[in-house]
Amino acid sequence: MTQENDSKNNFSVLRSQAEELLGPVSVDQEDISALSPEEAQVLVHDLRIHQIELEMQNEELRQAQIKLEELKDKYLDLYDFAPVGYMTLNDRGLILEANLTAVGLLGMDRTSLIKMFFSRFVCQEFTDTFYLYLQQVFQSQSKQACEIKLTRKDGTVFYAQLESIPVQDENGQFNRCRAVLTDITERKLMEEELKKSEERYRGVFNNAVVGIMLVTEPGRFMQANSSLQDMLGYTEEELKMLSVFDITFPEDIQISKEKLDALKQSDLSAYRIEKRYVRKDGALLWVDLSVSAIRDSEGQHIATIGVISNITDRRRMEEEFRISEEKFSKAFFLSPDAIMITRLVDGMIVSVNEGFNQLSGYAEEEVIGKTSLEINVWDNPEDRHRLIKALKAEGKVNNFEFLFRTKDGAIGYGLMSASIIELNGTDHILIVTRDITERKRWEQELQNTLQRFYTILSTSFAGVLLVTNENIVEFVNQAMCDLFDIEDSPASLRGLTAHEMIGKLKNAYEQPSETLDRIRQVVSQGMQVKGEEVAIRGGRTYLIDYLPIEINNKPYGRLWHHTDITARKKAEQDRENLRAQLLQSQKMATMGTLAGGIAHDFNNMLQIIFSYSDMLLAHINEGDPGYKGLQSILKTAQDAADLVQKIRIFGRRAEMVLVPLDLNHQVDEVTKLLSSTLPKMIEVDIHLTKDPVIIKADPSQITQMVINLAINANEAMPQGGRLSIQTENIVLDNDYCRLHVGVKPGPHVMLTVSDTGRGIDKGFMERIFDPFYSTKTRDYHKGTGLGLSVVQGIVQQHGGHITVESEVGKGTIFRMYFPKLEHEIVPAYVETKIPYSAGGTETILLVEDMDLVRELGVIILEKFGYKVLSAGDGQEAIDVYEKEQGNISLVILDIIMPRMDGKECLEELLRINPTVKVIISSGVGQEDLIQDVVKIGAKGAVNKPYGMRQILGMVRDVLDGD
């Protein structure tokens, strides 16, 4: 029993501990009583073991949490203090996260940086690159890299490399990326420096006066500078197809190969050799060749560089000197040059000729047995030391210039050739000296003159070419090469014949044969030409001066002087074009003002004809006498009204209802009309851009414009042809706008209407937009001559401009440019109808300054039952209204009147009666004033000439309205 109680007690303790770890235990206290002591003991034992295991697991979990916190701290340290910047960006470039390195690179604090767009730091010229790169990262769903230029908060700029990889969110969407930002400014600067170094090397290589070649295995040319190309007569491309052995004289090939093999095997680091090359033209060329090996970091031979000097002249002179030695004994005493022989060992003079005596002033007996230093013939004793040193090194010296001193102390220039010869088994020096004092003086004078001359010509912006009397090019400046797109350097062109030089120039002339014939004529006759213009291909114009020159009153050669005056010619033409446009604009503005005034008065007259005809027709039947005559009068009045509308358009005073308009839709609608009206032999070709072409325009006027141009094209193609209509979105830049008066840069819609008709002669082009001007025979049924004037008026009223190109026999192209509307909604077309006319019994006050028009209005209104009061001007209307205000239901008010116009009259009427109903009656060209009056309080407006039905309908609508 005791053991059972102990088991129960132990069970209770263990159960409590288990519940602390695991929660409630399902085994109840009562269940233990059903167990035997042995079973209870086993249960207690199992619970203790389970308790121990749980405690161990809890300890392991605690230790793991400690390690996790330590790793987290280490990760944060590594993340924040990494040598590169880490960031997290969303798909719009918004910074979601950044480490301290990225914060430092961008010069911001972390709090401010988060939620900023990375593009904020991207330099403007790299903005498109960054957005394209960001788009590529998310589209490719792979790691991408790019180099961009960034600006820190403090304004400093640095280059950076951005590497990004997209990451998925919990939904598997790629809407973020992890980015690594690395400062590569130092690397970019090193690349720039390397590029500059390469350019310096290239400059030295290409401009060296000696030949330089770079050769790879097996002796193939990799590079050759221009001096080497000139020396060998090959281009660089031709040399790259050869090896050095292909141009080496056959007898020198073996020694060249042995030297090159030794260089490759590191037996030599460099060597120098004199050898022979064969030029492209077959001539033999002696060269002094210095060769060095180029090796990699491991010492392996990878290329060979050679520096080449042309010593052909020197070798020839040496050969000539050898021959002269054989004749020395005969020529020694007869030579006019100074000749002396001295011992090499001590310089003692052993023999001199008569030429030496005359040059130095010493007699032979005065110098024999003495040295040249003792008799003081050297102005600079160091010259003798240099001579001896060169002689010991080379055995001979040619063209050694020095200053000598005569017996009386005079100083002169000497040109010396010397060689070591053997006499009686002892080395001696044979010295031949020529007095070149006078030549040096002339050479120096000529050199100074030429240097000043060439310096001036070299810095000239004009092209200069100097050809001698022997037809040899003596001088070409860089400007000449630039003007004629000659790739050769000026130095390489010197020495060419005039014929060869002309061959380089002729392809640039627009008319080479004619220009060259002119040059040959000038050359043959020794003529002088100044300021002659010559056309050059590409639309350029050069001014040529041809000047024969003389030196010392003797013909020396010819100087060709070319100046590019293309810009000046273009500026002159542009000024002339702008002047013509301005004059045309002023002329059209003046004529527009005149046309608008005429149209206003003419419309009042038409109102009378139109209304009386309408009234008379209402009282007779179709078969009655005079019916057809009245119909003709009414038709003619309507045609006259249409003509007035054209005049209004020409005068830029037509009333317009401007709405956002899809030009493609409008052209489609006009095309449907044209297809049924144009002859079948006219092919209509429509090309409409797929992009939106939205402009602010009056649809009816755009239709009128296209129809006018189509009719014009039809008349230009009596035998048939093609009418083309095209729309296109374009952008007009500042250069275009400078050449077109009043045109503003920006997005435009271009409407092109072209035909393949007979075209327009240049003599008529300036007048095609003049009103009532036509190349057709004057015929009422063929047009009024207002077609193109109306087109121009419509275009200009819409803020656009028009251009025309035409060539006789090939057709005409009209281009209309309209300012483009962005993101505008084009309203649906709603058909409007004139309200049906109806009569009434109300009293109407009719205000009109023109008697006939006023009387006509009274007749129409009274005919349909209205009681009418009339007034001839605004002041009279106010007087009538003040007396009859209680009876007057409506006022019909003309807008332009003497004493008090319609606007002032309306304002006074509203002051008297704020609820007064007024209809405005207007002529042409008064749209702005009408809008002002309607805003003030007018209930409607009607334009003259109006029909009886139209005015009666509007009267009824206003009277019946609120």
Number of helices: 31
* Total number of strands: 32
Amino-to-carboxy terminus distance: 112 Å
CATH 2nd-level architecture of the largest domain: 2-Layer Sandwich
Your description of this structure?
- The structure is a single chain.
- The chain is an alpha+beta fold.
- The protein folds into seven domains: 2-58, no CATH class; 81-190, 2-Layer Sandwich (Beta-Lactamase), CATH 3.30.450; 208-310, Beta-Lactamase (2-Layer Sandwich), CATH 3.30.450.20; 316-435, 2-Layer Sandwich (Beta-Lactamase); 441-564, Beta-Lactamase (2-Layer Sandwich); 656-819, Histidine kinase-like ATPase, C-terminal domain (Heat Shock Protein 90, 2-Layer Sandwich); 843-960, 3-Layer(aba) Sandwich (Rossmann fold).
- It is 44% helix and 25% strand.
- The strands form seven sheets. A five-stranded antiparallel beta sheet has the order 2-1-5-4-3, with helices on both faces. A five-stranded antiparallel beta sheet has the order 7-6-10-9-8, with helices on both faces.
- The model is unreliable at 650-654, 777-785 and 827-836 (pLDDT under 50).
